[in-house]
Amino acid sequence: MTATLRMRLPAAALFLSAVFATGAAMAAGKIAVITPYLAQPGTQFYVEAFQAAAKDKAWDVNVIDTKGDVAAVISRLEDAATQKVDAVVINVDPAQVEAGLAAVKDAGIPVVGMDAGASPYLVTNVTSNGYAMAADTAAYVANRIEGKGNVVMFVFDAFPPVQVRGVIADAVFGNNPDIKVLDRVTPDVSDGGIADSRAKMEAILAANPDKGSISAVWAAWDQPALGALQAIEAAGRQDEGIVITGIDANPQAREAIAAGGNFEASMAQDFHGIGAAAAEAVAQTLSGKPPKSSVTYVPTKLITIDNVKE
Amino acid sequence: MASALKTYGTLIGFVLVVLFFWIEIPDTFMTAKNWLNISQQVSMLAVVAFTMTIVMVMGDFDLSVGSMASLAGIVAALAFRDGHGVWVGVALALAVGLVGGLLNGALVAYVGILPFVATLGTLTVYSGLAFLVSGGKTIFGRDIPTAFSGFARSGISLTDTVSLPSLTIVAALVLLVVWFTLEQTTFGRRLYAIGGNKEAARLAGIRVRRLRFLAFGLSGLGAATAGLMYASRVASANPTQGSGLMLDAIAAVFLGMTMSEEGEPHVLATLVGVLILGVLGNGLTQMSIDSYVREVLIGSIIVLAVASSSLGKTKG
To answer: What pTM did the predictor assign?
Structure first.
């Protein structure tokens, strides 16, 4: 009796393996998609779109979620290298998993980044264009205030992806001779960014009490825009026509835009588009014509009250 | 025959799992390179599980090891960011691990709180501290010296393409130390006596409180070591990165315990437990089996192994 019970573990393992082995059918390409962040909505959208595109191409896609464990991403990259998959797609900061990327590179397997960050180990990184997002919102501000007035900028130059947004907005405002940048504020983001942005904006409002002395607030991401909105409303100056824009179009920002107040516009990233473009980049790489650029941009969309409900 | 199967059932199961992958993935699984890969992949878990074995020998648990691993990584990374050398950061992190472990030991041995409750409390405290001192941020990039992150990528070359990873060597050294401590010293044998019967051990003149205090210190030290290995491997430190280690370590010790006639933890058996988890992770990934199915499989195998062992005991 004891012996039979003891033998159950291996027997069960063999049974289960028989069930799953049949699933590994031959396919046009074996692709491993590895991420620690599958629980996050953005990542889910990328991966779903990638899988849909892969289905059309008859790829055998293995989605590996390490549930927040970045070291496990390295382990799974090593396994993918051993397994000799045809391509790997990652959604994690390449700098944190270089040990695994090196193993994959040694095995001669191409890696495509899906909003992963730039790295020499990647064929290309498919992501949204930070330059374009900043240009769209800054141009929106410039046009709404008809090229003249005082603008408050919220920036964060310590974080490269956000720093580029500030540079572009500087250029757009600088190109309008009648627009004056009143202040270029770097909020303290340790509390999420809203509270300190609000405090900074309150101080700026107090220093510029006259109606029309502030025409717009351009924020490099949504949190400072929301903080500025709170400050303007708390100061009772919401009817002065101060235009606010953010970037990312997070749910709180969308709500504010839908409410029709000062917060007028933000930029939405196309998560499905990123997943589909990553699949396209893999397809090109497998066909021997990899994307030329180390970064592949997917268009973003300006969100205003006209399309916020879509 | 039956008794041999009873003792070696889990080991046989492990061998069958290995054979299965060998047959299913003939080209790449049973290669020196892949096994060295596996050894590196499980090295952090192994260190936590080996030192967890020390407290589990006494019938205790340490739930705080995952948080401690995260905290240790953060402490070292912050030291690096402030311009201290690699050895200063490593020493500070290990000191934090030892002190944190001894705090667990004091709560369990001297205050008399159940280990489950005491270490559940400190799990939260250490995790909170890791967030507090790091400001919730991941410390990476230039803040981490290449001498530190390079360690996890280094090794001793065996052939042109295969090398013995440094992380594997660290885990092997910890295994040796823990094995010697538990199996070859009076200290270790006394821990087993405490696990057998605390009251009897105390009446026999064993200083139960002091030994439990020290054993938790070793567990904390092991957790900090694993945290440093993790931080080196990912070349960064994040306040949550060690959290997955605790449950896997306890699972590995339990798997190992099924191999003992008395249901006692032994560190070599823990090694088999660790390898079962590591081989399943590696082999199932190579077979392109969905990661959630993999979770279900690994959990089921743990339950099956432990269940068959305990059923075997009641009937046998």
So the answer is: 0.78
